[in-house]
Amino acid sequence: MPDVVIVGGGVIGSAIAYFLALDPDFNGSVTVFERDPSYEFSTSARSVASIRQQFSTPENIAISRYGYDFLTQVPYHLGIEGDAPDIQFHEGRYLFLGDESQQAAFNKILTVQRDSGAEVDRFVGPEAIAKQFPWLNAEDLAVAHVGLSREGWFDGYALTRAFRKKAISLGVEYRDEAITDFKRDGNCIIAAVTSSGEVVPAGSFVNAAGGRARWVAEVAGIADLPVSPRKRCVFYCETRNPVPQDLLVIDNSGTYFRAEGKGFLCGRSPGTGEDDPENTDFDVAYDQFEEYLWPTLAHRVPAFEAIKQVSAWGCHYAMCLLDANSILGPHPDVTNFYFANGFSGHGMQQSPAVGRGMAEIIAHGAYRSIDLSVFGYDRVAAGRPLEETEVI
Ligand SMILES: Cc1cc2nc3c(=O)[nH]c(=O)nc-3n(C[C@H](O)[C@H](O)[C@H](O)COP(=O)(O)OP(=O)(O)OC[C@H]3O[C@@H](n4cnc5c(N)ncnc54)[C@H](O)[C@@H]3O)c2cc1C
Predict the structure, then answer these.
(1) How far apart are CA 239 and CA 77, in angstroms?
(2) Which of 3, 64, 209, 229 has most Cβ atoms within 10 angstroms of its Cβ?
């Protein structure tokens, strides 16, 4: 009988498994159930996989600080006897662009970021922005923030595989099956039930099911987990004009782009109240590219008027509808059921710190490194948002 069952073996479930197995004071066994071992439909294989320090919640900045340290030393952490995984980490910087209406929000966020140790530079007014980034059309911009350190991007699928492989080498068992039900005794979960009907008793159960988290919570008897799959499409484009290699640009329109291979990746982050309803299909919304992305790209970067859209994919953010922040730690009443859910588009970079923190709270009942208790389920039960405004 495993001591810990983890439902979902994406980057989050695998990071939790790795850190549990690594802990010398935890002697329990860990089993990860993964319904899609190819990861074809897992967010972790379809992510833009970038890391930034520019968040609005101090705890998210602390999480990214540790994330950067871990991600830039993956061969040290996740290597196995000379087999050093390469997640292709690329140092880069996030450039956030704002117009007049966004200036007050930019000012407020900058204070939080600098107070939290994030190094961010600032340019005010179209002339200053155009001087610094001459390839941009800055005429309708009022402010630009650019990260100075600890940002970049990497191969998210390679990171997921590396966590998984290292966890297995440390004794974690992976099983290629879905968990479809749980058995409860009062406020205690006593077993998970697999799709083949096997009953798997354990001491603790972790919901790391990504976009399916709400359904996993529901079969555990926990209703209304405010996590919903929301469609996001990514387009790969090529252009004859060079793309800035070291920047991930977030335009004031919500359009983002960053260099990738010979071209660039781009997509759209819908503003508050603009998101599509819940959706679980993987179809690419090509109309989004024609009607929104291309015009906003060409407006911001005149050289993007001539681009060729080469490929695209659809996937989902596991959006936390309460506040766009993750939900972490045990349920207040069903105390052996743990959440690692609702990453709202920033779970890839958070996997090292979240994996470590979740392992701490499962094994020791308390966070020992970064205190992640602000992300606890209590705020969901109380309807008390911890709002993250920097959602891309
Ligand atoms: C387009 C896009 C771009 C993104 N860009 C970034 C970025 O730049 N930076 C960043 O930090 N984050 C980014 N993200 C978010 C990030 O990729 C996710 O937060 C992260 O991958 C979530 O990992 P996960 O393990 O929670 O979910 P997943 O990778 O979805 O893993 C969950 C796993 O659970 C399995 N599962 C589900 N239900 C069950 C069940 N009942 N039984 C067994 N297994 C089950 C699924 O098969 C899946 O493999 C992006 C996401 C998208 C969609």
Answers:
(1) 37
(2) 209
Query: Which of ligand 1's atoms lies nearest the C-alpha of 48?
Result: 5
Q: Is the dihedral of CA 116, 118, 123, 129 positive or negative?
A: negative
Q: Determine which residue's CA is closest to atom 51 belonging to ligand 1.
A: 47
Closest CA to ligand 1's atom 35: 8
The single residue listed with the structure tokens 């196995």 is 80
Answer left, alpha or beta for residue 273, where phi above 0 means left and psi between -120 and 50 means alpha: left
Domains of the chain: 4-82+155-226+322-382 (3.50.50.60), 93-146+228-319 (3.30.9.10)
Q: Taking the CA of residue 190 as centre, how many other CA atoms within 13 Å lie in the half-sphere pointing to its CB?
A: 5
- What are the residues facing 6 on neighbouring strands? 32, 206
Q: Residue 324 and residue 317: Cα distance in Å, rounded?
A: 10
Report the pLDDT value the prediction gives residue 241, as an integer from 0 to 100: 81
Q: Which atom of ligand 1 is nearest to the CA of 350?
A: 11
Percent of all residues in the chain with a pLDDT value above 70, rounded to a whole number: 100
| C-alpha pair distances (Å), 188 with each of 28, 127, 165, 328, 380 | 19, 61, 31, 18, 20
Q: What is the pTM of this model?
A: 0.98
Q: Mean pLDDT throughout 343-357?
A: 98
